[in-house]
């Protein structure tokens, strides 16, 4: 499984030369640089350490959340949820340990390890950032936000029915490296994830050592729990770079629909930029899936908007909302967000020629029921207070290939969305 140093080095050079833009990310720059000499052979030290940490995390979480099978997991997930009421402060066990107490990881070293694991796979696809700057100047570094439904491992293997995806492409040991590679390639300052069912054993231990502070909020009745050999419930996770932002407040929100509690959740956090002292709110959600549930999604969206109205003090605090809304732009929930008094715009519309159209797809898969190509994922932002400086282009149909997603090339059925934001120096008036 290991690559020779020469092969590893040339692979790295090829991929870097292929034009991935790497904006300065202080949190990742903070790590000590790799040796200038030829890289040493990658050993799975960091990935193995994360697995070891998973044991500790699991045994630690067992006291509140058994990671065993079936019913016990269901009850433990319920126990977690019962402790967290709507818009409550998150319980202690869902907050990452202070990363200051963990040995930092050099992101280049972790990337090398991932690439060593993936050496039999095709190289990652080239995606370019599109420059969207307008005349809003900014004296501060941009805030890079990544939105991504990473595909829960239990759902991918046990529920989703991706009939054209080889089962080997879904193996967690390699798929997790593809996910980490994507995150490390774009080095977001803030990472908003859905369908996370490997928080405690993978993302929390690794990302905290890369300088991120993480929060996880599982779905109360995660469908993952229905899958044999599951790894616990899936949910939303939010990570931010600790050396760029200070956490001002955090709310785990169990969404309601027509006053009834639902199985869908959101996390909303107010952060303060350490460079500029400006505050903003970042939220992540994953709304109810499937056709026939449009009104339910719409009600969940209204509930989320109401929560965000309160948290942003009626749009006074700039807002970014990332999510898998499970809704095309024609749906009511999309219209609620587009016309909200929070004055939101959808960032990926800016990639279209007229700035008014969403991309043709953010998810593309083949199930037993046929091909599913939809635009469901969005990054909403306060248009009076924030500007999108650039956005990562989507994969082309040719890159996605005839068997669609997920695949040996790409680990999820949803594409990641990545935007660079800056504060408007003089916020435009509301509307
Ligand atoms: N027996 C048990 O122990 C439990 C069972 N469940 C099951 O979970 C479900 C309810 O959970 P809920 O949160 O409302 O689920 P959702 O309807 O929101 O869907 C859950 C996941 O399924 C994916 N999905 C969407 N469409 C399809 C499809 N056509 N085929 C397969 N997967 C799809 C979604 O992914 P995406 O967003 O990417 O489209 C989503 O992440 C019920 O089906 C229930 O039976 C739940 C808990 C426990
Ligand atoms: Mg899914």
From TrEMBL:
Catalytic activity from the UniProt record: NADP(+) + H2O = phosphate + NAD(+); NADPH + H2O = phosphate + NADH
A GO cellular component annotation in the UniProt record: mitochondrion
InterPro entries for the chain: CCR4/nocturin_mRNA_transcr, Deadenylase_nocturnin, Endo/exonu/phosph_ase_sf, Endo/exonuclease/phosphatase
Superkingdom in the source lineage: Eukaryota
EC nos: 3.1.3.108
Domain Endonuclease/exonuclease/phosphatase span(s) in chain numbering: 146-414
Location (main, coarse): cytoplasm
Positions of region (Disordered): 19-43
The keyword Cytoplasm is annotated on this UniProt entry: yes
Subcellular location: Cytoplasm
Biased composition (Pro residues): 32-42
EC category name: hydrolase
Keywords: Biological rhythms, Cytoplasm, Hydrolase, Magnesium, Metal-binding
Entry's family note: Belongs to the CCR4/nocturin family.
Subunit relationships: Interacts with PPARG.
Protein name: Nocturnin
Organism (species): Panthera leo (Lion)
Name of the gene this protein is made from: NOCT
């Amino acid at each position: 499984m290991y690559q020779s140093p020469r092969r590893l080095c040339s692979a790295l050079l090829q991929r870097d030369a292929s034009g991935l833009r790497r904006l300065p990310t202080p949190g990742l720059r903070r790590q000590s640089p790799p040796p200038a000499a030829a890289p040493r052979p990658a050993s799975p030290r960091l990935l193995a350490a994360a697995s070891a940490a998973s044991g500790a995390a699991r045994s630690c979480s067992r006291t509140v959340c058994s990671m065993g099978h079936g019913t016990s997991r269901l009850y433990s997930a319920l126990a977690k949820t019962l402790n967290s009421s709507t818009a409550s402060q998150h319980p202690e066990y869902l907050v990452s340990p202070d990363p200051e107490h963990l040995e930092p990881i050099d992101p280049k070293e972790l990337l090398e390890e991932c690439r060593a694991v993936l050496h039999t796979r095709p190289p990652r696809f080239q995606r370019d950032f599109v420059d969207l700057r307008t005349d809003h100047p900014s004296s501060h570094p941009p805030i890079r936000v990544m939105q991504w439904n990473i595909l829960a491992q239990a759902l991918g293997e046990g529920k989703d029915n991706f009939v054209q995806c080889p089962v080997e492409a879904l193996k967690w040991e390699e798929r997790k490296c593809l996910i980490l590679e994507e995150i490390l390639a774009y080095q977001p300052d803030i990472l908003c994830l859905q369908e996370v069912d490997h928080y405690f054993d993978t993302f929390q231990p690794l990302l905290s050592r890369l300088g991120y502070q993480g929060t996880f909020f599982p779905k109360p009745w995660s469908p993952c729990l229905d899958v044999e050999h599951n790894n616990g419930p899936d949910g939303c996770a939010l990570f931010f770079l600790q050396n760029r932002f200070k956490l001002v407040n955090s709310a785990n929100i169990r969404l309601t629909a027509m006053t009834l509690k639902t199985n869908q959740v959101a996390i909303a956090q107010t952060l303060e930029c350490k460079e500029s002292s400006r505050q903003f709110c970042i939220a992540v959600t994953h709304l109810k899936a499937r056709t026939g549930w449009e009104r339910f999604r719409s009600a969940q969206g209204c509930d989320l908007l109401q929560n965000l109205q309160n948290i942003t003090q009626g749009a006074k605090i700039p807002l970014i909302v990332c999510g898998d809304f499970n809704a095309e732009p024609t749906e009511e929930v999309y219209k609620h967000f587009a016309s909200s008094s929070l004055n939101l715009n959808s960032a990926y519309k800016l990639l279209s020629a007229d700035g008014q159209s969403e991309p043709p797809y953010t998810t593309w898969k083949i199930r037993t029921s046929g091909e599913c190509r939809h635009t469901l994922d969005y990054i909403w932002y306060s248009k009076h207070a924030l500007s999108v400086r650039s956005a990562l282009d989507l994969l082309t149909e040719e890159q996605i290939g005839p068997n669609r997603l997920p695949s040996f090339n790409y680990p999820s059925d949803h594409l990641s969305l990545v935007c660079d934001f800056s504060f408007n120096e003089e916020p435009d008036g509301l509307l």
